[in-house]
Design brief:
single chain, about 600 residues, alpha/beta, TIM Barrel, Rossmann fold, Hnrnp arginine n-methyltransferase1, 3 domains, 8-stranded parallel β-barrel, 17 helices, protein-arginine N-methyltransferase activity, Arg_MeTrfase_PRMT5, PRMT5_C, transferase, methyltransferase
């Protein structure tokens, strides 16, 4: 998100919307939030009274005579008296009638969003009104559903349900989207009102899993720094940064307490956003634009990867260094060198026999480079056989053989590693492969390496030595909605039987892991039971969430031991630094499953 689209301003009692918007725009605000209808001193008691109400914001206020429009920069606020689920039945009916009128007017004006507050745990009638309205619309509309980040001890919210964890603002929101269903929920977004007292981490991480469109920051939350300018406390800054990373906007509410007006608040929020962007890791930079996007897992055994795909992976700053280190250690181990100079100060002379390295699935050759670098570092000579089945990648490899590797002992072996037509005459001392998927074995690495194992010496080394998959229950309303509509995506239509039961590779941001990941399957190479063993697997794991939540799917990770202490990992607790070659794998569920704190979740998984 660009800074110019970041901050909006809530304007109350706006007499001239165009004038107020122009003032706000000059001050750098991206949008304004205004009341759709004038405030009522007394709640309407009949439909006739509602029919007589004229809108505060008219068509002439958002659509100008010169053809310009500010509708996309305006959020319409529903009247505060509206409460569809009021305990007063008459008030409930009047509210439903009034809400239908106001949201219909907002859609008529083509406003960017319609703001509706949640007041209590019971929102059944509100859900019914929204569901009926959204399904009747031809064009999409966005609703900003506002709830507090957490309830405060002095809260004036109806029913005063403060002590019950089962009636927190998140539970209000969750009931609403559950009643609405995935299709309607595509139009529902959250606005979180930042509170003075902040909740514990479990509450915040649960909000992270929801589609948060904006944070509402009251000017009362700001404190003055030594120069008299408004700033947020460090805990509030931290939370703001977390939601800015999710591309949430900010809407300022309340009165300005500074002589220069609201502009200083906007400048401060923009500064926080700028600092957040500058602090992005390499991993975050490389994955920009992929957040929460469903991607079809690669199938390199079945499909030939494109040059662009190879190029992206070859930019990974960690993976190839790790492979080089693993090959170096393997060479040192097999050649018997300890890497030290002799007593005369001379380097130890390498053995005459070369170590034979097979690069299985060489792509465009980065592992050849890593092997040559490791050979140079270790002083151990190598002969490299480059095995690749992709006909287009073979052209790149042939060119590199004639140029960069012309003076190296490197040989090209075209074909599928499992059944080479002309395999090398000598077996390998070291296998080097990178056939790993986001779930470890999902790109059929076990089957490929098992099929090639007859070309490895009995005491040979495989890099990687082993890899283990991990699973955990996942909460993400965003992923749930995307998976439920994935069948409509043309790129998925040919291969998907059940869109919500198909695994995807996802750069997860809007999510919460409900319990710590646990081991699923482990594969080791070379296999000792190659003649009798099977790659079929089964496991059952039990998870216990620490907070109430909703299971929208299962998230999968992997860790690989390349050699000795050299590892690759996308496990969230020990992710390899700045490695972006793999995003987690998500197995979405067809039906979301609510879970309670301390409730056991049993997951059965077969391969």
């Amino acid at each position: 998100m660009e800074s110019k689209n970041l901050v909006g301003l809530r304007i109350k009692n706006c007499e001239n919307l165009q004038n107020q918007y122009q003032i706000g725009s000059k001050a750098g605000f991206a949008f304004v939030g205004v009341d759709l209808f004038p405030p009522c001193k007394n709640k309407p008691r009949s439909r006739q009274e509602i029919d007589e109400l004229l809108p505060f914001v008219g068509s002439e206020d958002v659509h100008f005579e010169n053809g310009m429009s500010m509708s996309e920069c305006t959020v319409g606020y529903i009247s505060e008296w509206i409460d569809c689920d009021s305990s007063d039945e008459e008030q409930s009916l009047i509210s439903q009638y009034g809400l239908k009128k106001e949201i219909a007017w907002a859609v008529h004006l083509s406003l960017s969003a319609i703001h509706i507050p949640l007041r209590h745990a019971n929102n059944v009638k509100l859900a019914q009104v929204l569901t009926s309205f959204i399904k009747s619309q031809v064009t999409p509309c966005r609703f900003w559903i506002t709830v507090p980040l957490c309830l405060q001890t002095d809260s004036a919210f109806e029913d005063n349900e403060l002590s019950s964890q089962s009636s927190s603002p998140w539970h209000w929101w969750n009931e609403l989207v559950t009643l609405a269903g995935p299709v309607v929920s595509e139009s529902l977004f959250l606005v979180l009102e930042m509170t003075l007292n902040l909740p514990e981490e479990g509450v915040i991480s649960r909000w992270i899993s929801e589609p948060v469109a904006a944070l509402a920051l009251s000017t009362n939350l700001f404190i003055s720094n030594s120069k008299g300018f408004p700033i947020l406390s460090r805990p509030h800054q931290t939370i703001l940064r977390r939601f800015l990373k999710l591309n949430a906007q900010v809407i300022l509410t309340g009165e300005s307490w500074h002589g220069r007006g609201f502009v200083v608040y906007r400048q401060y929020v923009n500064w926080i956003w700028k600092c957040t962007c500058e602090a992005r890791s390499s991993y975050e930079e490389q994955s920009l634009g992929y957040e929460n996007r469903l991607q079809e897992p690669l199938q390199p055994l079945q499909d030939n990867l494109s040059s662009a795909t190879y190029d992206v992976f070859q930019m990974d700053p960690y993976k190839y260094k790790a492979y080089e280190e693993a090959i170096y250690l393997a060479l040192m181990s097999r050649s018997g060198f300890n890497g030290f100079a002799n007593s005369e100060g001379d380097d130890i002379t390498p053995a005459a026999n070369k170590q034979i390295i097979y690069i299985l699935g060489a792509g465009q050759g980065p592992f050849v480079d890593a092997s040559l670098q490791a050979s140079c570092r270790s002083g151990c000579p190598v002969r490299i056989y480059v095995v690749e089945k992709n006909h287009n990648a073979l052209l790149t490899l042939k060119r590199r053989l004639q140029t960069e590797w012309a003076n190296e002992d490197v040989h090209l072996v075209p074909g599928d590693m499992r059944c080479l037509d002309n395999p090398p005459a000598e077996k390998a001392d070291i296998f080097v492969s990178e056939l790993l998927g986001s779930f470890g074995d999902n790109e059929l690495s076990p089957e490929c390496l098992d099929g090639a194992q007859h070309m490895l010496k009995d005491d040979g080394i495989s890099i990687p030595v082993s890899y283990t998959s991990y699973i955990a229950p996942l909460q993400s309303q965003h992923i749930h909605i995307n998976a439920s509509r994935a069948e409509s995506y043309s790129k998925f239509s040919n291969r998907i039987q059940e869109a919500s039961e198909t695994p995807y590779v996802v750069r997860l941001t809007n999510c919460k892991i409900l319990a710590s990941p646990q081991k699923a399957f482990t594969f080791t190479h070379p296999r000792k039971d190659i003649a009798t063993g099977s790659n079929e697997r089964y496991c059952c794991r039990t998870f216990t969430p620490k907070d109430d939540g909703v299971i929208h799917g299962i998230v999968g990770y992997f860790e690989a031991v390349l050699y000795e202490n050299v590892t690759l990992s996308i496990h969230p607790d020990r992710h390899s630094p700045n490695m972006f070659s793999w995003f987690p794998m998500v197995f979405p569920l067809n039906i979301a499953i609510p879970v309670k704190t301390g409730q056991d979740i049993k997951l059965h998984l077969w391969r």
